[in-house]
Every structure is written in C-alpha cells, then in structure tokens.
Amino acid sequence: MQPVELPDKIHVGPVIDQGHSLASVSDKVAGIVLKRKVTLGWVFGLLLSFAILQNLMAGATWLIIKGVGVWGINIPVGWGFAIINFVWWIGIGHAGTLISAILLLLNQSWRNAINRFAEAMTLFAVMCAGMFPVLHTGRPWLAYWLLPYPNTMALWPQFRSPLLWDVFAVTTYLTISAVFWYVGLIPDLATLRDTAKTPGLRRTYGLLAMGWRNSARHWQRYEKASLLLAGLATPLVVSVHTVVSFDFAVSIIPGWHTTIFPPYFVAGAIYSGFAMVLTLMIPVRRFYGLDDIITLRHLNNMAKVTLATALIVAYGYTMEAFFGYFSADTYEKFMIWNRMTGPYAVFYWCLILCNIITPQFLWSKKIRTSPGILWIISIIVNIGMWLERFVIVVTSLHRDFLPSSWGMYWPTVWDWAVYTGTLGMFMTLIFLFVRVLPMITIFELRMLLPDATVKEPVAQ
Amino acid sequence: MSSKTKLAALVLAGLGVALSGCARLDMQDQPKYKPQRPSEFFADGRSGRPELEGTVARGEMQEDSAFYSGRDEKGDDIAGFPIAVDKAFIQRGQERYDIYCAPCHGRIGNGLGMVVRRGFKAPPSYHIDRLRNAPVGHFYDVISNGYGAMLNYAAQIQPRDRWAIIAYIRALQYSENANVNDLSADVRSKVPAVGAPLTPEQKAAEASQPLVPKDPDFYNFPAEPATPSGVPGARGVGAYKTNQPERK
Amino acid sequence: MSAYTEDDQDTLYGLMAEFETPGQLVAAARRTREAGFRKFDAYTPYPIHELDGAMDLHDNRVSLFTLIGGLLGCAGGFTLATWVSAVAWPLNIGGRPLISVPMFIPVTFECTILLGGLTAAISMLLMNGLPQPYHPVFNVERFVNASRSKFFLCIESADPKFDRQDTEGFLESLGPQEVAEVAK
Amino acid sequence: MPQLFKSSANSFARSSIVVAVLVLGGLGGALFELIADSSYATRQGDAREQPIPFSHAHHVGSMGIECRYCHTGVENGPHAMVPPTKTCINCHSQIWINSSTLEPVRESYRTNESIKWTKVHDLPDFVYFNHSIHVKKGVGCETCHGRVDRMPLMYQNASLEMRWCLECHRNPEKFVRPRQFVTKMGYEPAEPQETLGPKLVREYNIQKLETCWTCHR
C-alpha cells in the first residue's frame, strides 16, 4: 500500500516529514514506550483521571445498593443520562473504526499515523458506552440475561426488539474492534519485543506478539486478514449506530419516529468521533513531539471530515424541523416547537451553536491547520454532540401525549458521578495505553517512507 | 486493557456466575406477607390474624339457623335436611366423607377406620339403631362441635359439605341395612339366593380380604398407655372418660 | 545438486542472508525461487507486496475461511432468531408474524460480521502457526532488525535442494550483507 | 538475538490457549448451567429439617389419609395450607400422646403458638401461584409434589424452575388427569395419555397460559 501522492493544492504537506528512515520511525514510536522516562505530567494526568474514575466506582456502587432510582429518571423521562451517554460514547467510538477500516479500504495513506490511537479510543469508548445499559438494568450482575442462552427460565430475548439488536451490535462491535486492534498490534508488539532492553519486557511483549517473525508468508495472510477485517468492520460501524438510532426511530415518540435517524446518527457519530480524535491527538502530538508523524496534513484532513459530517448533521436538524412542520401532526409540530422554545430550549440553541455554527470556521484552511484553535473547536463539537443526545432524549420524552403526564428531567449527582466516572475511565485507559503500547502503527508508518519503495537491482 | 485487568475481570465474572448459582435473587424474598408467612410485627409471630370476637366476614353472615347449626328455633336437632338432596349432592358427600370421616369411621361407617386400628377410641358404628334413628341435626352438631373423643371439624368441613356428608351417612345406613327385596328385579336375579352356600371362589375371595390385615408389621407401633393423659384445652378430650356426655 | 546430509538437518535450520533494501530482497527471493528452492522465507519489517509475486504466494484460504465463517454466522444468526421467535418462545404481540424477517436482519447481520471477523483473525493466526514464541530464526543475532529496518531471506535445510556449501554459495551470489547459519 | 523462549514454549503457548478457551468457554458455560440448574441451587430432592419429623410416608402412604384432610385450602384457595395444630390434635389427642417427638405439637396446642414449620416449596415472591385452579383443571398433587406417600421427610420433588412450570403450561395435555384422581398417588391413566390428555384439555377448557402476567402479576 503505497502513499497516494496527490497535488499539494489539496493536501497540506506530506503524511510524514522528511528525514525519517525505517530505523528512525521504529525507534521513535517504540521509544515512547520503552525509552521515554515517566514524566510528572503523565503521572499527574493518570492520577487525576484515576481519581475521576472513582466517581464511576462510587456511582455504580450506590446504584447497585439503592437501585436506578438514585438517577434522575422517572415517568415520563425513563431514559436519561444512561442512554444519552451510551449514544454519545458509542458515537465517539465510531471514528476509530472509520479511520482504520474505511480509510484502509479507500487506501488513504494518512490514516496510518492515527489509526492505532483512534482504534484504542474506539475500544475504550465502547467500554464506557457499555457501562450505561448494563448499569441501567439495575442489576448489572444479571446483564448476561440479555444474551440468548439456554436458561432455567426457558426464556429467550425478543429478537424483534431494537434493544436486543443493540446488544448484538455493541457486543459485536466491541469484539471486532478488539480483534482488529490486536491483530494490528501484533507486528508492533514484535518490534517492541526486539527493541526492549530488559528481559522482562521482552518476554512480556514476546508473549503478546505470539512469536511474530515478520515472515513474508505470514505477511501475505496477515494483510488479507486485515483487509477482510476492515471490509467487515466498515458495514459494522455503519450498522452499529444505525441500530442505536433504531432504539429511537422504531418507537412512536414524536421526535424519534423519523426515517432520517439512521444516516443522521451515523454522521453524528463520525462527527463526534473525529472531534474526539482531534481532542486527544492534538495534545498527544504536542507532548510526545509527534509533529513529524502526525503532520498538519492529518489535522487538516480530520478537520475536513469534521466539517463534512457537521454539514450532514446540520441537514439532519433542518429535516427534523421540516418534518415537524410538514407532517401536520399536532404532536410532531408541538415537539419541535417545544424543543426550540420550551423549557429545554437553551440546550437546543447551544447545540445549534456548537454543532452547526462553530464548525463553519473549519472552512478556513488557516484554522484547519492551527492545532490550538482546532482543539478548542473539537471540544465544542464534543459538547455539542452530547447536547444533541440530551435534546433528542429529554425533549421528546418530557412532554408526553397527555399533558397530565408531563414532567421534567434533571440529572442527579449520581448521574453526573457515573458520567464523569466514565470520562475518568476513558482517560485512565488512554494514559495507560500511550505508555504501554505503541500509539502509532509502526509497520504501517514504515510503508509510507521513501525507503520502503521496492527498486529491484538489475540482475547481473 | 492490560492482561492483568482482563484477568481480574475474568475472575470477577467467574465469581459472579458462581454466586448467581447459589444465591437467591434479591426479589425472590420480598418484604410482604404471603399466607402463613411469619411476622416480626405481631407478638404471636403470625401474619395471618385471627378473627376478632364477633366479626362477621363478608358473605359469611349465618342467618339460616337450621342450615348453619342443625337446630330449629327451639334448639332441637332438625329432622329433615335444610337443603335439597340429590345424587350429585350425595356423591359430594361421599367424597368428603372419605376424606374427613373415613379415617376413623371407616369407609362403610362401621367405626373401624385406619386411625381407630392404630389405637384411637373406636366410634360407634352408624348402623346401630340409636344413630339410624338420630335426626340429621345430631350429625351436623357432632361434625360442627365434636363429640366424645372426636374433635370438631368446623374448620375443615364447610357447612354445605357437612350436610352432604350427612346425606351420604344416611345412604350408608340405608345400604348397610338393605333388604334384598329392595333391589329391582333384574338386579336381584344376579344376587345369590339368600342362605345359599358360598361357592369356593367366593369363600376364598372373602378370606383374602380380612377386615384386619394379616401383615404383622401393620400393628407394629409402640404401645401407648390405655388411659390418655389428655391434651389440656382440647375440647372433647376431657369428656372422653365419660364416653357419652350429656349434650347441652 | 547433491543432497543434504543427515547431520545438517539435525543441527541446522537453514541459512539466512541479510539485505539492506527491499529491492535487493525481492530480487533475491525471485532468484531463490527460480533456482528451484521451495522451503524458504523472506522476513521484512513491513508487508512487501512485490514479494507475493516473487515468492509465488497466493494463499487465499483466509478469505475462504472468512467467507465460510461469515456464511455460518449469517445462517446461525437467522436460525437463532427464527427458532427463538417461532419455536422456543413464540410470543404473540398484537398479531404480528412470529417470523418477521426484516426484524431479524440486524441480528443476522451482526452475527455474520462477528463470526466472519473472528474467523478472519483466528484463521490467519492458525495458518501462520501462531502463537509460536520459539522459532529457529530468532537464533540469528541480527534477526532483531527484521522488525526494524533490515530484510532477511532464509533457505531451510529441509528443502530437498539444500546443500550446506552450495546454498551458502548461492546466497552469497545474491549480494547480501551477511550470510548466517540458523541453528535449530 | 538470543531466543526469548525455549522450544517447549510453542506447545505450551498453543495448549494454554486451547485450555483457556476450553475452560472459559466450554467449561465456564457448562459449569454455569450446572450450578444454576443443579439440585444444589434449586434444592430439588433436599429434605428439610422440620421441628417435628412429620412423615407423609406414614400418614399418607400407610395410613391412607387423604391430602385434603390436612391441606384444606387446596381446592378453594391459592394456598394448600399447612394445617393448624388442631388438625394434628384430631388424632393425636389419643394416639402417641406420650411421645416426646410430638411434644411440640401439644406444646403448640397448649400455648396457642404456631409450630414453625420449614417451608419446602418456596416459590419466589414475584410468582403468583394458585393451587385451586390447578386442582380444578386436573393437575394432580403428584404431578408437582411427587410421590408424597413415599417421603418420610418432605422434600421438593421438582426443580420449581420457570422452565419446569412452562413445560406444563405449554403442553398441559401431557400432564392432566381426571379431576377425581387429583389426589391419587401413583396414578396410572386408564387410557393412553396421548388420547386422554387432549380430551381432558377440551373437557376442562384448559388454556395454554404462557403470557408473562399469568404468573408475574
């Protein structure tokens, strides 16, 4: 897979800076794990994240002791933070699979520098997402009841329910993401094994690398398997958020029951996922001095994808409003009007600001290539996408068909504990990941180098 | 996720699975009363509360004195059934009789039921003149209030069923004292002539069905003293010694 | 060509040549194959597609197994959904059909992906003989560079054409940086 | 590079994966089914300690006392009822009156305090169960409780798992019997159950109640 060289009018700079050789990229990326001293900043970050993770511990413990009533959910808003955060996290996860699978299929060479990191992010985000439905069951230790297995109750899950599709989609997504990630790691683990100095580390990475020896016969099957996994993961990633959107779209709640939900959710997922990759990538790139590997071209490309998905999402919002008007259905009309002017209107307009107005700055190439501003925009988009889920879930539910069933939803301290706790868990895992595993796919970086081109000597 | 975390997660998952196997689910025992469940609230430890004196439960107002007490206004046992008697009613009585009465009174009312064979004081046979001539109200009173060694069956047998049992007792009394001439002609023709010697087969059949089983283990119970020590408070037991108490 | 000796096969896994550039390796691999060797392998820090042609590597079994796995997952998922909904736990919900195919598509699809993906990864590992923490090639001191920056070609002593002297001479003729013995 | 692992590591690595898969997948699943479904979890066949070693085998088996003599609630109520002490005293006012085993019975009758029997068939509290309808529809005592006439100490004959309940609720014709034989122990159908069952299902208008709210209400 050779770098696709296109005119520089489109791309800003190369996918990897000049002056790198096969040895230097290997040493640079492996060095972050093996040679680099543990910095105070990293320790502080890890401890802070770990401290925030304790919110999840406390929140989950209290929830298990007392039941889901400790959350703010009640009639009519039975789905609160749990589903909001679930959808948000799953959406964030999508960027990883998109970058590693779809861009691999599209032969986009710039993906090589960021795919490992994005895949790890996917894995951790899906783990965070999984927390919410499992905790929302109220009896997490019985969460395995969601799976079809022969049991003493002679009961089976309802295969006609989108909530069960969710179980299948999310578990498949987690499994395939983990497998894809690990398969991608094997050659790099071998590099770490061969580069590490202490026997303990070499043995550890050696076991994880399973004895990978870079054989050409192995590489041939390996590439085939990677391509197949990418080919399978691509429809998977689209299906996952489609299924998540079915949780809403298959119901008959005004504001949920729309056919635009699947594409609009997938676009929103990619949107928030790319924003999250930017949010994480920009500081990591700076702290670990990876400017030469994660170049401005990467940031530029990611910003473009963010802008494109922002426009799709904007189209989605417009359509929602249009459906409300065009359906001529009292409830639909009321729903969209209530969304814009009701008690939660401020969240709606914040989300428009965050998700539609802010990304318009990305039309400017200058902004697309300024990491600092890009970072701020990416955070705003993350907040905006969270608000979008909040608005969709809460505004549709809090005004039931009968005014007698109207109510309000506000998260309790335990909602916030679990939510911030998953943020802590996510960050803790990211911090550990960057120290323990190569955060950039080394063997794919090598392929981007000029050295990697095969120039056969003329046979004598 | 490091392999250590994975391992810990696996161990935890394994524990969870193991625990789910032996621990009962948390909603399996709920803080609510089901019939006969003990209570920590009431001093006697019962959740089912006894009726207060004078309480009449809905639908249990017993206005029909003949039906509910077996006595007329003067307090004498009634002679006729206060309820229509038909075949189904007698069959119901037979079923109830076999459940509640047969253990002592025997299936045919001869007073040699299984419990009696184990040492309970034998009740009189129904087929004595005194009982054959007793009014139905007498039987009702005995079932409801006990008689001699017999405790009352008021809690076990509902009033309507008591009358059904009495109807069946009447049928038993009639059948045990029946005359062959009471049978219809075609049935009578199948009955061997009165006084005719039994065929050997009939003799054998009779011998093989003794009233008292020949199994030596059948009576193999620890001997009990002939004089009952009595159960304090047990109604009827104290009166047992006089055997035939004056009623009222 | 003379045959290998018993001694060689007992102690020697093969001979390994080290190359500086991917181009040299591809050329060497092509010539090794043309010379009639079959039991040989190239070791490179990243996949080189030119080697597939040079070494005549056309193993499509991973694809085949993935297809089979995916189809099994597809059939399994649909069968599970149908069996559960129509046989094991038929539940009449407002008279809707028990076997409602559109509703089974998501689960069928996810099962297809799950089984297909797992088969792809597992069959790749199995056919590559992994995990295999011990392998004779690791005995070569400089082989650590195979996962960093250097390119290796190893002809195994198990090859019928292998001969300690001749093969070493052949490898030297390919212009390597170094030819090393690979102990068993 | 010196070898990191001995050559034996290969077979060890492979076999450890196989073992791990077997242990976690197969054995784990099997063990789970075994534990959740075992008589240890369901307490099936587990005779319970009682304050008085009451023997159904003696009272029902050898004395022939009918079930309903004591369990008076079974026909008309949800609960078959453990009989009050008075029912014991019906006979034990004269039989075994000096037995120390029966002292708790007399004690209970004297003091008017309940005997604290141990519940054997303890359904979860989220299950609604009514004896009377089962008796009315021709489900024998024996069908659920087993050969009580052969139980010296009462034990739970069935697993009482939901799966077990559903077995009959889905196929009642395999289990029903004529009403008059409901309390009969060791009942044998007079004609094959395959023909008798459907006939009774029709006659007694037995429905296949499988909805959740049949039992969970």
Quick overview:
Chain C has 184 residues and is of the alpha+beta class. Helices cover 48% and strands 13% of the residues of chain C. Chain C is built from six helices and four strands.
Description:
The complex is a heterotetramer of chains A (460), B (248), C (184) and D (217). With 460 residues, chain A is mostly helical. Chain A has a domain at 24-252 and 259-307 and 411-452. Chain A has 15 helices and no strands. Chain C is an alpha+beta fold and 184 residues long. In chain C, strands 2-3-1-4 form a four-stranded antiparallel β-sheet. In chain C, helix 4 (61-88) packs antiparallel against helix 5 (101-127). The two termini of chain C are 23 Å apart. Chain D is mainly alpha-helical. Chain D has helices at 8-37, 39-42, 56-62, 67-70, 85-92, 103-111, 131-136, 141-145, 162-170, 193-203, 212-215. The longest helix of chain D has 30 residues, at 8-37. The N and C termini of chain D lie far apart (70 Å). The chains are: A mainly alpha (460), B mainly alpha (248), C alpha+beta (184), D mainly alpha (217). Chains in contact: A-B, A-C, A-D, B-D, C-D. Chains A and C meet through helix 1, helix 5, helix 7 and helix 15 of A and helix 2, strand 2, helix 3, helix 4 and helix 5 of C.
- Percentage of β-strand residues of chain C: 5-15%
Write down the Rg of chain D: 25 Å
- N to C succession of SSEs of chain D: HHHHHHHHHHH
Report the order of strands and helices of chain C: HEHEHHHEHE
Q: Kindly state the number of beta strands of chain D.
A: 0
Greatest interface (CB-CB under 8 A), with counts per chain:
A-C, 73 and 75 residues
Q: How many β strands of chain C by DSSP?
A: 4
Structural class of chain C: alpha+beta
The largest pleated sheet of chain D is described as: none
Oligomerization category of the chains in this entry:
heterotetramer
| Helix coverage percent of chain D | 40-55%
Nearest-integer average pLDDT of chain C: 86
Radius of gyration of chain C: 25 Å
Shape of chain C: elongated
Runs of chain D with pLDDT <50, length 5+? none
Class from helix and strand fractions of chain D: mainly alpha
N- to C-terminal separation of chain D? Answer: 70 Å
- Report the uncertain regions of chain C: none
Strand order of the largest sheet of chain C: 2-3-1-4
Keywords, separated by commas or semicolons:
heterotetramer; A: 460 residues; mainly alpha; 68% helix; globular; B: 248 residues; Cytochrome Bc1 Complex, Chain D, domain 2
What is the topological layout?
The complex is a heterotetramer of chains A (460), B (248), C (184) and D (217).
Chain B: H1 3-22, H2 65-69, H3 87-105, H4 114-117, H5 129-132, H6 136-145, H7 159-176, H8 185-188, H9 200-207
Helix pairs in contact in B: 3-7, 6-7
Chain C: H1 6-11, E1 12-19, H2 22-34, E2 40-43, H3 49-54, H4 61-88, H5 101-127, E3 151-156, H6 164-172, E4 178-183
Antiparallel strand pairs in C: 1-3, 1-4, 2-3
Helix pairs in contact in C: 4-5
Chain D: H1 8-37, H2 39-42, H3 56-62, H4 67-70, H5 85-92, H6 103-111, H7 131-136, H8 141-145, H9 162-170, H10 193-203, H11 212-215
Helix pairs in contact in D: 5-6
